[in-house]
Design a protein that fits this description.
The protein is mainly alpha-helical. Helices cover 45% and strands 6% of the residues. The protein contains seven helices and two strands. Strand 1, helix 3 (65-77) and strand 2 form a beta-alpha-beta unit. Helix 2 (32-46) crosses helix 3 (65-77). GO terms for molecular function: hydrolase activity.
């Protein structure tokens, strides 16, 4: 479970671990989980003294959808001067893009448990829409307008 992983990380790294029980999709669509994680992180950073935590040692971490949330929270807080800077982010098999589910990594890891592109696309749609009605469009790559694909090609492409 996640509690066991959090205890392991806390014990092995001699760190304080705060596990956020964020609202889950499909019952709670985007941005519910993101807002929960952002709010919890902001609260924690504002009250570090209460928890006896060194502001220079705060790291966010997440796996799968939680990795996406950790990355999003890190990006949101990166420019904030009113809060301590995050030391790092640890992203464990995060879902970071939904533009193209046909990239080489999806092909290379086709048979790897947990990394199936169909499953990744399904969960992404559940998170964003609360349903997977457009799953085939997403898998084909026809869900993104051409101008958007061109705009992000530098970061999301097989090259």
């Amino acid at each position: 479970t996640h509690e066991e992983l959090c205890r392991f990380i806390a014990r092995e790294s001699e760190s304080v671990v705060v596990s956020v029980g964020y609202r889950l999709a499909p019952e709670h669509k985007y941005p519910a989980a993101y807002e929960d994680c952002l709010s919890a992180t902001q609260h924690f950073l504002q009250h570090l003294q209460h928890y006896a935590v060194d502001p220079a040692r705060v790291t966010v971490c997440g796996d799968s959808a939680g990795g996406n949330l950790a990355a999003a929270v890190s990006q949101t807080l990166a420019g904030r001067s009113d809060l301590p800077r995050l030391r790092a982010q640890i992203l464990i098999y995060p879902g970071l893009q939904a533009l193209d589910f046909n990239l080489p990594s999806y092909q290379q890891n086709r048979g790897v448990p947990l990394l199936f592109r169909e499953r990744a696309a399904f969960y992404m749609l559940q998170y964003l829409n609360g349903n997977a009605i457009k799953l085939e469009e997403v898998l084909e790559g026809s869900h993104i307008p051409v101008d958007i694909k061109l705009k992000y090609r530098k970061w999301v492409s097989p090259d």
